[in-house]
C-alpha cells in the first residue's frame, strides 16, 4: 500500500524535514486488524504526551482520522506513523509557525515464529546501556541510535530480543519491547522516568492487571530481582507477549500469569 | 543551489531512510570559501570515525570528491552533508548490504552579527543537561533532540549561544559550539568521552595551540573552573570564534589569547 505524507500518497520527504536532520519527531507502530488500528486511543495518548513534552504542534483529531482511514485501507498489517516537527530553517532553533509532518507507512503483518509466543524466547544480554535523560524518557521519539547499536550486537536467531540496562545497571526494557517480571503473583515493570520507551502494550497490561486485581509495581529493577523472578515476559503492541525462558545464565519457566495475560492480549490482537 | 542525493540533484529522501526513522546517521556542517570546503580533512576524519563507530559503510573517497564538487559549485556559503545508513528493512536491525545515503545541501553564508566576534557574546545557562552515552560521545550523529530542546530554552537575542552541562554537572559545550577556557595562559576544553560533539574547529584549535606551544588540557571542567577562568570563548567551523563575556552571574573580559586564536581562525575562514 502507498505511504501517505500529510494525507496524500507520497514516497519521500523534503530534505529540510527536521525528522531527518535531528530525529526531531515521534513515531508509533500500530497493529492493524480487520481494518482497525489496535489500541488506537493509547497510541494517540502517548503521541499527544510526546507532542506536549517536545512542543510539537499537531492536529490530534486529524491524526486520528488519518490513522483510521489508512488502517481501513490496509486491512491487516502494521501501520507506522512518523510525526516530525516539519521543516527546518537553519540550525536547532524552532519557529512558532512550524507545522508537524504526518507520515504513514503500512506493511504486511509481522512474521515472527509462532514458537516465540508458545514456547518463549531467550534474551541477548546487550552491552549497550541506555543513557539517562528525563526530558526524553518514556517517549517514542526518533532518536533511536542506542536501539540500533543494541540490536546490532547479535545476529543469531537463538535470541529473539535483547535485554537493556541503564547506565547505572538497572534493568529497563528490551530493544523493541517492554519487560515484565512476576514474583509471588505480583507484576513488576521498570520505572521509565530516566530512560526507556513507555510502550502502549505495557500501558494496556498495567490497566488490565489493575482491572483484574493483580498486584503491580512500577519501580527500579535490579539484576538480582530479574534473576529471582518466577516468570519473565516481554511485550509490544505488534507481537503481544513473548514469555522469556532465559538470558545469559539466567532461566525462567513459562508460568500461569504470563499465560493468562497472553490470553487477554491475544484477544486484543486477534492472534 | 540544488541539493544532491547520492550525487544527483534531488529535493527529497525515501520514507524508508533510516536517518528519518531513527536518526541513524551522521552530519557535517562545512564552511565553503572561494569554492573550497574549509577544514575538509578534519570533517572527513570525524565522519570516518563516526562511520567506523556506528558501522556505517560509506565510500570516503567518493564523499570527498562530491564535497569538493558541490563546494566548487556553491562558491561561498555553508555545505551540509547528511550521511544516513540508507534504507531500512523493518525494525532496528541493520543488514550487511545497506548502502549509506549521501545528502548534500547548500545555503548562503551565515549571517551572525559582526559584534559576536568583536565584542563577544553572552551564553544562556541551559537547564537541559546532556545525557552520558560513551558509544555516541564525540560523534556528530543525527540524534539531536537534546540540542533542539536546549535551543528552545531562550528566544531573546541577548544570548547568542547556550551553555550545556552534563547530567553530573560538568561543563561540556555550547548547543552548537565547543567551549574553551583560558586560565594562566593555558587552554582548557572539556573531555568528550561521555557526551558532547567533538567539533572540527575544536580539533583545529587544539592542533594550532600545540603548534604554537600553548599549554592545553582536555579534561572534565567544573562550574567553579568556568567561573574562575581568565577568558572564555566558543567556537565552531562556521562562525569561527566568539569570545564569551558572560553567562548568568558569571562574567569575563575578552583577553589576548582569545584574540590571538581569533586571528588564526579568521585567516582560515577568511572572515
UniProtKB/TrEMBL annotation, chains A, B:
Pathway: Cofactor biosynthesis; tetrahydrofolate biosynthesis; 4-aminobenzoate from chorismate: step 2/2. One of its GO terms (cellular component) is cytosol. One of its GO terms (molecular function) is 4-amino-4-deoxychorismate lyase activity. Keywords: Folate biosynthesis, Lyase, Pyridoxal phosphate. Coiled coil: none annotated. Its EC number is 4.1.3.38. SUPFAM superfamilies: D-aminoacid aminotransferase-like PLP-dependent enzymes. Its cofactor is pyridoxal 5'-phosphate. InterPro entries: Aminodeoxychorismate_lyase_IV, Aminotrans_IV, Aminotransferase-like, BCAT-like_C, BCAT-like_N, Class-IV_PLP-Dep_Aminotrnsfr. It catalyses: 4-amino-4-deoxychorismate = 4-aminobenzoate + pyruvate + H(+). It comes from the Bacteria. The keyword Transport does not apply. Involved in the biosynthesis of p-aminobenzoate (PABA), a precursor of tetrahydrofolate. Converts 4-amino-4-deoxychorismate into 4-aminobenzoate (PABA) and pyruvate. NCBIfam families: pabC_Proteo, PRK06092.1. Belongs to the class-IV pyridoxal-phosphate-dependent aminotransferase family. This is Aminodeoxychorismate lyase. It comes from Pseudomonas karstica. The gene is pabC.
